[in-house]
Every structure is written in structure tokens, then in C-alpha cells.
Design a protein that fits this description.
Blueprint (H helix, E strand, L loop, with lengths): L1 H28 L16 H4 L12 E4 L24 H7 L3 E6 L4 E4 L2 E5 H14 L5 E7 L9 H9 L15 H4 L4 E6 L18 E3 L7 H13 L10 E5 L13 H9 L2 H10 L8 E4 L4 H15 L4
Parallel strand pairs: 1-9, 2-5, 5-6, 7-8, 8-9
Antiparallel strand pairs: 3-4
Helix pairs in contact: 3-4
Length: 318
């Protein structure tokens, strides 16, 4: 009993130190990067506003969401706080400006996060279709994966092609250097990551797991995650030189050995430091590597930061 209490005291001390590190860094460095004050006039159509005929796919800083379809996961006020990473529906996230979706499924095609389940993936597909019907030049990266510990939905690759085929941008390494206008009217880069089924082949309508990479570390300590993100990002080639998307997630996650196990209060330890992260990318000379930037509880300022850097790249300012 005593050792358990001692561990928790040490963890609380570590958390206090980690938060202070980020606040001190923010105090000394601020949030200053090229075009950081830019705000899109219409977040729902922000790609369309940035001249699709000029904006290359690889130069976009894609605002994304972590565990995107968890707005209605579990039982409200009972299990939901332990797994909910977004409060907005997929459609509302897209309207807000999100352009990368992280969808986890289980064998029966229901969306899940760990052992908790939500609606059928049809809800996600319908939300995407609704958004695409209301816009003209917005491109979405849709990552669908079988959740850890679950079996693949049968013939799920066929399901995705059947339901999204008219929108799918087929795999081709040349896509990275094409402009948005050059891939239209196709609108979705769909990355399917099964656990046991065969991966999509190169050149198929679906992209395989090798085309979206990240370096996830499981920690609830914000400075540890912040510095890990910078370290792994620094090891990547610049966006202009790689043939895959690389994601950085501005999130921390609850740990079972910590009394605080609800997603909200834990991930908020790092949530406010997204602009600081972009600023540090410039300070450390790795801003040309940042591409997909994801978060829990996406908000307008997070989207604006990603769009601002995209705008700076499009205008030759970054």
C-alpha cells in the first residue's frame, strides 16, 4: 500500500515538472512561425481558398483527429469518459476543418476504441459523403484500421471500395507532388490497415499501411510526448522527398497505473501547446518535415494553426 502511494506521489511530481517545462518553453519562445496570424475565411472550404491549382498534396499540413469516431462511444457518464477522444461527429469535424480521420473498427464493422464500441462504420461513411457533397476541392485522408486485439471485418476492403469508389484517389507515388486540382474530382486517400487480412497492393484504390506512419509512445507526461514528437519528426525526410504521410499526434493518453484515467483531463495537458510545437519545429530546423498533425478534441485554433502553415508554404514563406 505504502509503495503504491509513494509511486503516485512521484508521478504527480513528475507531471508538475513536465507541465512546467512546457509552460517555461512557451514563455521563452512564444508561438511565432511564418503566417501564424493567418485565419481561413471558411474552415469548411479552406483548401479551396488556398488555390487548389497551386497547392501540392505533400505541402499541406493536414489537421487530423485521433480516434475520430468516438463522439458516441460507450455509455454516457459511465464508460464514455474513458474512451471519448472527440465530442464532434465526423461530419462536424470535417466542417470545422479536419482533413485526416483515424477510424478504428472491429469484426462486425462497428467503430471501437479498445473494448468499447460505438456506431456502425456506415455512419462515418455517410458523414464523409455528406461533407463531400457540400464542398468542391477538399481532400480527405481516411485511415481505417482494425483495432488492436480485434479481428478484421470480412471483405472490408471490398466494402470501402464499394461505398467510396467514386471518390478514391488510387495509390500512386506521383500523387504526393500533384496539386489538389490535379487529383480532382477524386477526393479521398483511403489507407486501409488490416491486422490479418492482406494489405492493399500498390496501385489499388486503397493505400496500404506503409503510406501513413507515426511513432506513437504511450505516455501521460506532456513534455515527454512533446520532445518525443520532435525527435521522431527530426528523423524523417522532408515532405518533398518522401512517398508516405507522416503523422505527429499532439496527445497524451491515460495510463492504468495513474488515478486519472479519463481521456479529457489527461490529453488537455498537451492540447494547448500545438502552436508551440510548430514554433519549435522552426526553431529546430525541422519544419519542412511536418505534415499530418492530429489532436484529441479538435478546435478552431488547432485547425487555424495547420492552415496557416499550409498557407505559408503555398506562398513560399516557409
Amino acid at each position: 500500500m505504502g509503495s503504491g502511494v509513494s509511486r503516485q506521489v512521484e508521478r504527480r511530481k513528475a507531471l508538475t515538472v513536465e507541465r512546467r517545462k512546457l509552460y517555461d518553453l512557451h514563455q521563452s519562445c512564444g508561438e511565432d512561425f511564418p503566417a501564424c496570424a493567418f485565419r481561413p475565411s471558411d474552415r469548411k472550404n479552406w483548401m479551396d481558398d488556398l488555390h487548389p491549382e497551386k497547392l501540392q498534396i505533400c505541402k499541406i499540413v493536414w489537421p487530423g483527429t485521433h480516434d475520430s469516431a468516438t463522439d458516441r462511444i460507450g455509455i454516457p457518464l459511465v464508460t464514455r469518459p474513458f474512451a471519448q477522444c472527440q465530442t464532434l461527429s465526423v461530419y462536424r469535424q470535417l466542417v470545422l476543418g479536419c482533413r485526416v480521420l483515424d477510424i478504428r473498427v472491429q469484426k462486425d464493422r462497428r467503430v471501437c476504441h479498445g473494448i468499447l464500441v460505438s456506431y456502425n462504420v456506415d455512419v462515418v461513411i455517410n458523414d464523409i459523403k455528406k461533407f463531400l457533397s457540400e464542398t468542391h476541392s477538399e481532400i480527405i485522408i481516411l485511415e481505417v484500421r482494425t483495432e488492436y486485439g480485434h479481428d478484421d471485418p470480412p471483405e472490408f476492403d471490398k466494402y470501402l471500395v464499394d461505398h467510396l469508389g467514386q471518390f478514391l484517389i488510387h495509390h500512386n507515388d506521383n500523387v504526393f507532388h500533384k496539386t489538389i486540382s490535379e487529383v480532382l474530382p477524386k477526393r479521398i486517400i483511403c489507407i486501409w490497415k488490416p491486422r490479418n487480412s492482406p494489405n492493399p497492393k500498390n496501385g489499388s484504390p486503397l493505400w496500404n499501411s506503409g503510406h501513413l506512419k507515426d511513432d506513437w509512445i504511450n505516455t501521460d507526461l506532456p513534455s515527454t510526448k512533446f520532445e518525443s514528437n520532435l525527435k521522431y519528426l527530426s528523423e524523417q525526410p522532408p515532405v518533398s522527398a518522401r512517398k508516405f504521410f507522416y503523422r505527429v499526434e499532439n496527445t497524451v493518453t491515460p495510463r492504468p497505473d495513474n488515478p486519472v484515467v479519463c481521456v479529457g483531463p489527461v490529453t488537455k495537458r498537451i492540447h494547448e501547446f500545438a502552436r508551440l510545437f510548430i514554433t519549435q519545429c522552426f526553431s529546430r530546423g525541422i519544419a519542412d518535415r511536418l505534415q499530418i498533425f492530429s489532436t484529441d478534441y479538435i478546435d478552431e485554433d488547432f485547425v487555424d494553426a495547420c492552415v496557416a502553415l499550409t498557407y505559408a508554404r503555398a506562398e513560399g514563406k516557409a
